[in-house]
Amino acid sequence: MNYLGHVLNHLRKDLRIEWRSRDSINGMLFFALLVVVVFSLAFDPTAAVSRQISGGILWVALLFATVTALNQSWTREQSHQVLEAQRMAPAPASALFLGKAIANMLFVLVVEAVLAPVFIVFYNLHVIGNPWLLALILPLGTWALVVNGTFFAVLGLRTRNRELLLPLLLLPISLPALLEMVQATTGVLTAELDPLQINTWIVQLAGYDLIFTLICLLLFDTVLNAE
Amino acid sequence: MPRPATTRIVAWLWFFATLAVLAVGFRQAIFIAPTEATMGNVQRIFYYHVPSAMMGLVFPYVNFIASLAYLYWRRRDPLKALTADALALASAEVTIVFVSIGLMTGMLWARASWGIWWTWDARLTTYLLLWLLYVSYLLLRRFSSTGESHTLAAVISVFAAVDVPIVFMSIQWWRTQHPSPVFADGGSLDPSMWPAFLWNLAGWAMWGTLIMLFRFALERRRQLAEQEAALVAIEASLETHQ
Amino acid sequence: MTWQSLFNLSTMEHRHLLFAYIAVWAVQIGYLGWVAWGWSRTKGTRR
After folding, report:
1. Is C17 in Cβ contact with B112 (below 8 Å)?
2. Which domain holds residue B30?
3. Is residue B42 part of a domain?
4. For the CA atoms of A181, A183, A189, A190, what is the dihedral angle to 10 degrees?
């Protein structure tokens, strides 16, 4: 079986298991919703202000939601000794990582799809710029968070204080990506940036995704065989 | 491998030489260097701030290279790998020492000179991020189980090495659109200030090397003591079999 | 500057200069001391 086949297998497995209980998605959704409500109370923005800040709030809400979901994304693998089995299997380990990352990505995209109307309602959001760009920015930004988050989740799997370690590692590493996705999103929402600037943010974000996906794939094997 | 006595003598000589250089540097910075025209005496913080900040950018490279060496030797030559790991740990701690000092002195200077403690420009944000990343590095080492902490830390070192330049570039690009206050270096240095600056740069570089190698030696000592203890335990278990 | 003006705490500039230098030395000596304390607690091995 080729590499893609392995990835798809892992992906199918994760999607199927998640579909049965829908724990992860429900948790993420509710958490993100709470963050949105809390921020509304904290800032009580007018329509103009809300356009300025909702880009940042969206990504902060997604960041928190992603971290809570990622914390337990590998627990099933851990409790069933899947990682040990993977070490003995001839299939490439990075396929397991990629499948899991794509699965997490899909979960977060589902959360975003549900969250978007909520945002529009609660913040009276009216996109001034080109809304189709958001269809590009959202997946790119989500992948930046998910790929690093999935990697650090497995990195901290056998450590004490694993729940603390994930955000501790993820936030500094994701800082440039967060800046890029928030700036791009706000640029589209407020149309204060011209298309060239927005495109530059998007290109930077895509570059970030590429670089860190590569690094995660290359180093996953090392982390799996850390002892 | 020089005999331990020689190393000890060299270490003490280096220590006293460093103190001497730092004493000269202090004298130059406080008493001899002229008072800066616009900023006044507070500018003398520069002579401690800039060398420390520069050293804070050198030791991460040592850590990165040591981490790569560890990953390379991990399966090929475990003993060399362990040495590389000890160097990585020492340089990480020294990085945090110097970067913390850079941040603190910078903030004290900025507040007195320009009225603000902090600004989110490319340089400062990247510097803060460097600090955060290396604190995470140390916490990861502390929290992970002994077998794997070396490898995991080395992986984080790679991530940090890739991330820091990216942070700098992205924030610099951002600041071309949304300018914020930037703490200027004062451009080029007046010739009368060079002696103070150079003496302190030399002194803190010597100090940094000294504490890094001291920490490295301590870590090696701990590693060897551990190996020793493990060997004794194995021998003891073999004896009871008879 | 003189020793007297160094320890003059009247203006913020002077205070910050003094604090900065003290902080640098405190941190560096503190770290050196911590490493030295660790050294004294670790037994040297027979070479």
Report:
1. yes
2. 24-182+190-241
3. yes
4. 180
